[in-house]
Amino acid sequence: METIIRENFKKLRRSLGITQEAMASFLQLEQSSISKFESGERTLNVSNLEKACLLFGIPYQQLSNQKYESHKLTPSFRKTIVSNESLEAISEINQIALNIIEMKRLMEKTNG
Predict the structure, then answer these.
(1) In angstroms, rounded to a whole number, what is the distance separating the alpha carbons of residues 49 and 97?
(2) Considering the entire predicted model, what is its pTM?
(3) Whole-angstrom Cα Rg for the chain
(4) CA 72 – CA 4 distance, rounded (Å)
(5) Residue 70 is inside which H or E element, if any?
(6) Which range has the worst mean pLDDT, 22-31, 45-54, 90-99?
(7) In terms of Cα–Cα distance, which of 59, 48, 67, 57 is closest to 16?
(8) For the chain, which residues make up each domain, given as ranges?
């Protein structure tokens, strides 16, 4: 399962065009921590993985899916270098969107 999480993390990071350096800064880690995580040399704690998932726009549980669903919350960047503040804002917006999606799912389940 750890391998799947690493692979999905790397795919999602790349699909958003976020460098290891930018991800490390966002997670308040060293770039080498991201590199070693993606190569299987070290782990990331759940808190960091959850924070990354908000940036990716997916629920944390989806990171461990062997075939994760293509995420629908994809920001468009107008420039190649994205500031840490921009990544924080995207993460917060994704959290709101994911909450709305979950609330809608629960309401549909309840109303049946």
Answers:
(1) 18
(2) 0.79
(3) 14
(4) 20
(5) none
(6) 90-99
(7) 57
(8) 2-111
Residues 6+ apart with CB under 8 A from 68: 8, 12, 58, 62
**Do residues 74 and 57 lie in contact, with contact meaning Cβ atoms separated by under 8 Å?**
yes
Are the CB atoms for 98 and 59 separated by under 8 Å?
Answer: yes
Please give the Cα distance from 21 to 109 (Å, whole number): 41
> Which contiguous run of DSSP H or E holds residue 75?
none
What mean pLDDT comes out for the span 9-28? 94
The pLDDT confidence band at residue 110, using thresholds 50, 70 and 90, is confident
CATH topology of domain 2-111: 434 Repressor (Amino-terminal Domain) (1.10.260)
DSSP per-residue letters across 70-89:
PPS-----SSSS--HHHHHH
